[in-house]
Q: What sequence folds into this?
């Protein structure tokens, strides 16, 4: 059984959702320190042909605090309105905007809870079952090395195959995982594109952009456009 572990991101790019959809168990790595200037609370969308960054404030955010100790600000009206402005003419706006805005304005502002809601709402929209849990709720030795923590989480989930994003090739080696009975693979996204209502395709945007422009069937196809290496 395949397991993946990643920090909770708010409506991240397609490759993150490929990782969630490509494993049997996905664990939100929320018992590690918050990453400033990362993608936990921000991403980019396309607005009138220009890339626009959206960022949800995180009061008290610090690299010395764990993700599970922090919450998003409720001040998101500008972001929600910005998405309406950016995608009002996109073909899937009517089907996607209501639940995206509902996620962003949700009452429970805990980072992990809200990010999990965003992920699950996306896969619910696609009729794609996923299994998600949070690392902060698991019982394992958090003083181990980074690789050993991931191995422990994988085994706690009943997995024997750990899948990491491609960037993890710089950090983890197959022998370390194999020595503890866990296969290690990396998800390599294929080059993909879709119509964004303009001549030039802009990649690496928030999943919101994919959802606004693509049919459900096309989104499902894009989610499977990767290789395990």
A:
């Amino acid at each position: 059984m395949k397991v993946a572990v990643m920090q909770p991101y708010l409506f991240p790019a397609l490759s993150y959702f490929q990782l969630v959809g490509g494993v049997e168990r996905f664990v939100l790595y929320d018992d590690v320190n918050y990453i400033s200037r990362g993608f936990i609370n921000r991403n980019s969308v396309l607005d009138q042909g220009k890339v626009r960054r959206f960022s949800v404030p995180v009061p008290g955010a610090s690299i010395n605090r764990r993700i599970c100790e922090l919450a998003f600000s409720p001040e998101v009206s500008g972001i929600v309105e910005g998405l309406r402005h950016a995608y009002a003419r996109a073909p899937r706006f009517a089907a996607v905007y209501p639940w995206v805005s509902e996620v962003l304005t949700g009452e429970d502002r805990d980072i992990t809870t809200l990010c999990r809601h965003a992920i699950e709402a996306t896969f619910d929209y696609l009729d794609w079952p996923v299994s998600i849990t949070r690392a902060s709720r698991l019982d394992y030795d958090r003083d181990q090395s980074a690789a050993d923590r991931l191995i422990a989480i994988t085994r706690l989930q009943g997995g024997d195959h750990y899948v990491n994003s491609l960037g993890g090739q710089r950090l983890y080696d197959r022998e370390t995982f194999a020595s503890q009975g866990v296969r290690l693979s990396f998800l390599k996204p294929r080059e993909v594109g879709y119509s964004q209502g303009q001549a030039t395709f802009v990649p690496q945007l928030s999943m919101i952009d994919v959802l606004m422009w693509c049919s459900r069937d096309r989104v499902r196809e894009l989610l499977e456009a990767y290789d395990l290496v």
